[in-house]
# Entry
Amino acid sequence: MGAVSMVGGGDEGDDVVTPGELLGDSAHLVPGRGAYLAPNGRSVRASLTGTRRLVPPPPGSSDQRSVVEVVGLKAHGAVPQPGSIVVARVTKVMARIASADIMCVQSKAVREKFTGIIRQQDVRATEIDKVDMYQSFRPGDIVRALVLSLGDARAYYLSTAKNELGVVSAQSIAGGTMIPISWTEMQCPLTGQVEQRKVAKVD
Amino acid sequence: MATTPMTYSPSQGAERRQKQQQMRRMSQELDWKRSDGRSFHQCRPACLQTGATNAASGSAYAEFGATKVIVSVFGPRESKKAMMYSDIGRLNCNVSFTTFATPIRGQGSDNKEYSAMLHKALEGAVILESFPKTTVDVFALVLESGGGDLPVIISCASLALADAGIMMYDLVSSVSVSCFGKNIVIDPTAEEEACQDGSLMIACMPARNEVTQLTLTGQWSTAKTNEAMELCMDACSKLASIMRSCLKKSANLSS
# Structure
């Protein structure tokens, strides 16, 4: 926004494309993220506002066409995709489900929170039927999880069934930030009390 | 504009009717001059800006003569819990008029169907599969209604969607024409719209040469419809190039 003054020399080589603009021919380019193949099958057009980027084809692949992508300019709010690592805050812990608010997707913060649930069988990889949800999570814990799928209408399905997934930061009953001591226990620095959580192995 | 009286007078209605009838008679002439000096096939100058609101994911402000519209886009964000699961995204449009948008307070709220019409115009252009399960909210607010409101709302909304980074097949630009007897007049103002015989509104994606919405009111012959449609499509492609240059300008300013 602001005054409409022409910025001279601000756009060297960065060609900004808008939705619907022709990017190239489908004989030379494969549409990547932010581009699509037009219905006539011959042209590749942009679907976002941004700068155009060419990704060279991996060597040895059968298709020697480069992939054309459009990199959006505005920090587009993140949306959880299946297979992405998210950081969520646990809101409710019940007998078989823990519900969490997804706050970051792949280290990018979301604009508005999304709801996710961690089911009992997705908490850890071993002995999944003997999981006690209250000894894995507590409300207020920050967990790193993997998005399994889009889930149902209400929530995304998350999983912490890997070593590097689980509780990353938690507060003890006394109010201090706990220190992880094993993959099932965290200790409060103020009182020395040990609490049970499904702890993430952070390098 | 004619002098607006400082106090309410009951005879205002009769005066307005007389003026309308006079205008209707004049507009049937072939050499009728429009009140703002434009020719029949000349659109109002367009002023477009993106990034008008900071809280929204994307926003745009448009001023076409006296019609001023601001559109905010939020999303993709979580759908309401009551909604059923859908594996494509949802578009939720809402058009509202401010109380001061029309000369008479509260008159603009008659246009309740604008929300549904905006939805129809945009849903053909947005790639709903790119944001499954989530919703994109489009809120349009008309600050001043100076005629040809819906085309301005549609064009401004598609600019806001492009600003928000929602994947679209193409920008949607929209233009309307009014017919007065044998005359076809493009981009009518509010007083021209009030005494028109019929109208045609087109919302199209110019780069793909596809029409997302066409609204026709009144009695039209085939030849007149063809002429009006060609006029509209030409104006739409010109408007789309203005929209594109607006997006590129704001992109270069921000980088």
